[in-house]
Amino acid sequence: MSLAVRRVSPEPVPPHAQQHMVRMRDGALLATDVYAADPDGPAPAVLARLPYDKNSRYVYFDRIAERFTSRGYVVVVQDVRGKFRSQGRTLGWTGEVDDGYDTIEWITRQPWSNGIVGMFGDSYYGFTQWSAVAGEHPALRAVVPRVTTTNNGPGVASYDTGSGPQPVWLEGATYQAQVWTDNDSYAFDVDLTKRPVLDAYEEAFAAIGKRSAGFDLVVGGIPLAPYNGPHPYDARPVPVLHCVGWFDNLGIAHMRDYTELARRPGWSAVQYLIADTIDHENYRLEDAPVPPDGDHMVEDAALERMLDTCTGPAVEFFDVFLKGTAPPESLPRVRWKLGHVGWRTSAVWPPKEATDAELHLGEPAAATGPAPGGTLTPGPSAAPGTAQWRYDPYDLVPSAAADTFLQLRDHADERRTLDRDDVLVFTTPASDTPLDLAGPVHAVLHVESTAPTYDVFVRLLDLAPDGTARLIVRGCAQADKPGELEIALGHTGYRMGPGHRLALMIAGSDFPNHLPNSGSTQNPWLTTSPRPSLQTLRTGTGHPSRLRLTVLPESGV
User: Fold this and answer.
1) What is the mean pLDDT of residues 301-319?
2) In the prediction, which pLDDT does 154 show?
3) 335 CB-near residues (< 8 Å, 6+ apart)
4) pLDDT mean across residues, the chain
5) What are the pLDDT digits (tens) for 449-473?
6) What is the Cα gyration radius of the chain?
7) Which of the residues 61, 255, 355, 492 has an alpha carbon 20 to 30 A from that of 557?
8) What average pLDDT does range 157-172 have in this prediction?
9) Bridge-based pairing state of the strands 546-551 and 240-245
10) d(CA 302, CA 554)
11) Which residues contact 261 (CB under 8 A, 6 or more apart)?
12) Whether 78 contacts 54, CB under 8 Å
């Protein structure tokens, strides 16, 4: 039976938008919708440049535009080069610097424009904002990148987290195949159990009748610089409202952007942060698991609520930096949500009152058993210890969610995974008082393997009194030699209630989110016989494997 592929073509332009074909410097015409502001003269423009069909329900821009135009902004939404109605080659993370500059230049020449431009949007249309920042057009005065990163690049299948080499992120590879093949997009289910794994995608390309150049770059490991100019870090500073999700699968990389810019002269004065308990698709921890009538992907009432939450802070930000109707001091520098509690503000992130804490992995002999397993304690054991876990490419450890873009829609109980005999688990004692996490989390692990290459996947879970275990943060690394691995698990704001335990899980695979390791020097995309391996974790004062946390005062650590 041939693979079922559904072609996704552009939706009609809504009647309250006017489409223009805007010429770029090389002659390519990019389809661009304009939603006019209230007719009271030239106005600032809010620009979004995206590859997901500017008129689709998925990006909601007919509804988003209403929230900005009612406040006196013109909204401009564009299909990027090579996507849907726009001309040019279909290859993501290329050409966005020049196309962003040329689009802003076109905006400033329109009679409805007052020459001031801001940008807004999620994911790839956060990346196009950073590309416009790199272009340094003087009309660009503020950006609001949401759940994104400066460094997506065509290597999105292994984005930079700061933890060194990474296992290949299969969700990123699938994204390249589905979104970046030609002007349309394609929906299909990839059978990732095929060997070699590459054959699963070759089946899709055969059904479509063409290939994705971006996917081939990912598989070939061919880097392609996304910025044909300065990196955004080195560009002229503009005010930035970073909108981060604690459960976003790009959250580690996004927070690296925020922390890096917050320490750079010039940039630090114009960095603002909103960090919410959301995943990439804007599902919220407080709603998880999401009931059918609360799912904004299908229910319009839920969508309206979600859009109000997403656009409200952006309008407030643009009122300050595009219109000048309020002073910058009126905006909190950091607004962050403490999971299971609510919103807080601070002058910096992490909050000044937060402190570092370390929990050492102990009693490793118990770590291969079901939870609670080994221990997490404030100090290391004087005696050395070891624990081993196996990597079996024919019995892979399941991912926290089959689709981590929707991590919180189901927010699955991971207790069955935690109790597998091919993972290690270490837990804290149940606390009588709440534990508030507020900042970065890292795992520092001393690991060796019987294989020439191996992967280490780490999840920090909330182990509740009823035995359920749900994700807080996660991270991974790939190594080819024994030694210390420092694995970034991301930033979080999260309250552990009384009676709950922190559970640290260590595994050798994460499927279907990540490409299984070959266990050899063979290319993991091409191997037909991946090899099992055995990993050893070392603990004690000589090899202090530990969990590094950032906690609020009076927390139960």
Assistant:
1) 96
2) 43
3) 273, 274, 275, 313, 343, 344, 345
4) 95
5) 999 999 999 999 999 999 999 999 9
6) 24
7) 255
8) 76
9) unpaired
10) 37
11) 233, 240, 267, 268, 271
12) yes
Place of tokens 């050395």: 384
Q: What is the pTM of this model?
A: 0.96
462: closest CA among 521, 394, 413? 413
Residues 6+ apart with CB under 8 A from 303: 60, 63, 296, 297
Whole-number Cα distances in Å, 110 to 62, 104, 105, 436, 531? 21, 10, 9, 50, 61
Q: Which two tokens stand for residue 446?
A: 């001393």
Q: Are 267 and 261 in contact (CB under 8 A)?
A: yes
Q: Is 316 a residue whose pLDDT tops 70?
A: yes
CA 370, 376, 377, 379 torsion: positive or negative?
Answer: positive
3-state secondary structure 517-553: CCCCCCCCCCCCCCCCEEEEEEECCCCCCEEEEEECC
| DSSP assigned state of 167 | -
Residue with tokens 């995943």: 279
Name residues whose C-beta falls within 8 Å of residue 393's C-beta, 6 or more positions apart in sequence.
509, 516, 517, 518, 519, 530, 531, 532
Query: Is there a contact between 205 and 533 (Cβ–Cβ < 8 Å)?
Result: no
Amino acid at 310: C
pLDDT digits (tens, 9 = 90+) for 320-358: 999 999 999 999 999 999 999 999 999 999 999 999 999
Residue 440, exposed/middle/buried by CB under 10 A (0-12, 13-18, 19+)? buried
Kindly give, in sequence order, each residue whose CB lies less than 8 Å from that of residue 218, ignoring residues fewer than 6 positions away: 154, 155, 156, 157, 158, 168, 172, 173, 176
Tokens, residue 454:
């191996």
What span, in angstroms and rounded, lies between the C-alpha atoms of 249 and 403? 10
Q: Report how far residue 189's alpha carbon sits from residue 200's, in angstroms, rounded to the nearest whole number.
A: 9
- Beta bridge partners, 244, equal 275
Residue 159 has pLDDT above 60, yes or no: no
Residue 535, pLDDT score: 98
pLDDT at 223 over 90: no
